[in-house]
Amino acid sequence: MPQELVERRSRRAGLLIALGLLIQLATLAWPHPLSFVAFLTVGCPIEAAGVLYFLYALVSPAHSKP
Amino acid sequence: MVSAFKLEILLIVFAIALAGLIAMRADLTRARGGKVLAFFALFLFPSLALWTGFSEHMERATSTQFCLSCHVMADYGRSLYVDDKSYLPAAHFQNNRIPRDHACYTCHTDYTMFGTVKSKIRGVRHVLVQYFGTVPKPEDIRLYQPYNNRECLHCHAGARSYLEASEHHKTPDMLGQANANKLSCMANNCHDIVHNVADLKDATFWKERQ
User: Domain segments of chain B: what residues?
Assistant: First the structure.
């Protein structure tokens, strides 16, 4: 079912984004050079992956089927 | 007055709440309003939060505290407090010729179009070496390339103290050569005492009056 698929993908995207944002929040609260590395290597990619996954959910072939 | 940092934190918390709402109630996206909400929650706010977080981390990475947080840089930090006017960084730092809270970055960034980006990339490399590589001794740390006068002239160019100093007119074309980076400001017998961390054990230090 396309709608269910979109919902499932939106849920995953939401989880990824929330996790990435939580990591970002933690790195901002931790004034240490390693927080900078953690943001760049962990938080940032997870968050970006969530956003891209959501965009993929919008344009994926399953979604465009009637 | 709410600070920019607090606003950033609020934005991130709000973005987490929205993303969490969509994660738990994905069925909201069935309605038109829910689709709009999902666009805000899963694209607009996270993108904004990511950008502000990135900017905040980049800003922090230019602080003196950040640079000196690696143990190997401690002596470079101490060199800023040497009680000797001939120590170029100390004279700049103690007389507020550079912002103290961004002292390292002010002198060690490249004042070119992509200078800031290059500095950040070098900074990331330094952090990775600090935690995952072999850290050199403080006295073995060298610049990647000879210090460019361009960085000095970013502030000093056109300044009366720079143009009229008698030491800058020892030869007729001395200023021209310095401006063209053919004669280093840190050449022998000019401003050649920089951090000199190997000599700090014999130095006396300035104690700032509160």
Answer: 4-60
